[in-house]
């Protein structure tokens, strides 16, 4: 019998308090292994993780197919989230952001086919299309709900004003945005807006793209084709300064009797019952480690010590072009 993990709400949707991000199973972080990835998904489900996150752009397109194969005989145990809006060619070339209604419908049908399911539980707009009114995009997403193709809808990297406009068209169940000890951007107006509207918050990259795990000590620890090599926080002096941040987290974790990754996740979980982190891994031992973060309780002294770390982060979370597509 599958154990029950604590549950959290994303608006009306109930999910495990910790999800599994599946992006790295298909690309971005070096060599991939489909069988190992499927085994990791199955193990996460066996541990009680119910919330799986993917997007059509991952692979591109192949990550949804991988998830479809992984959950084919266990669909009833999964809350499945995917995304549309970032366009790529079959060869992987980036082609911009698209939120036009006809593209929304086309993308949903393609994702349903790749996933091998009749309904997507949570369907996000991956990035806001500045050329298409959010009302038009969300209106098309609402049509998908009425058609039974999607249960709930969400946004990713949307600004507070955009979220309010979207929610006025159709209830938004969740906003997905990067949030961790080294990305504190959502604090303030964005989280306040989510809470005012009863919109759940899904935190992607909750371990700072692996940096907060303490497993990355040198840029040479990353594969030659690892996307993180181009990330500002992994480059030059930024890398060295951020290593000092990780060292501080590791020191606090040792005193707490846990790993740096567990401490980082426990901190994020403590930020509110409406926050659901989705760390990604293809390693069973890492997934087990992450799930055990749910058992860690942080007291006032722990939280105060961690609160002092945020300003130490060096570098933007994306390149200049990537930063233009977030929080808009």
**How large is the radius of gyration?**
19 Å
Beta content: 15-25%
Fraction of residues in H or I helices: 25-40%
Order of helices and strands: EEEHEHEEEHEHEHEHEHHEHHH
Approximate shape? globular
Strand order of the largest sheet: 3-4-5-8-9-10-11-12
Q: Which stretches are low in confidence, meaning pLDDT under 50 for 5 or more residues running?
A: none
**What would the average pLDDT be, to the nearest integer?**
96
For the biggest sheet, the summary is: 8 strands, parallel
Number of strands: 12
Q: Which secondary-structure class do the elements indicate?
A: alpha/beta
List the helices and strands and how they pair.
Blueprint: E1 7-10, E2 13-16, E3 20-21, H1 34-47, E4 51-53, H2 62-71, E5 79-84, E6 86-88, E7 94-97, H3 101-115, E8 120-125, H4 134-146, E9 150-156, H5 160-169, E10 174-178, H6 189-197, E11 200-204, H7 236-256, H8 260-269, E12 275-277, H9 284-291, H10 300-307, H11 320-323
Parallel strand pairs: 3-4, 4-5, 5-8, 8-9, 9-10, 10-11, 11-12
Antiparallel strand pairs: 1-2, 6-7
Helix pairs in contact: 1-2, 1-9, 3-4, 4-5, 5-6, 7-8
Question: Could you characterize the architecture of this molecule?
Answer:
The protein has 328 residues and is an alpha/beta fold. It is built from 11 helices and 12 strands. The protein has helices at 34-47, 62-71, 101-115, 134-146, 160-169, 189-197, 236-256, 260-269, 284-291, 300-307, 320-323; strands at residues 7-10, 13-16, 20-21, 51-53, 79-84, 86-88, 94-97, 120-125, 150-156, 174-178, 200-204, 275-277. Strand 10, helix 6 (189-197) and strand 11 (200-204) form a beta-alpha-beta unit. The protein is globular, with a radius of gyration of 19 Å. The mean pLDDT is 96.
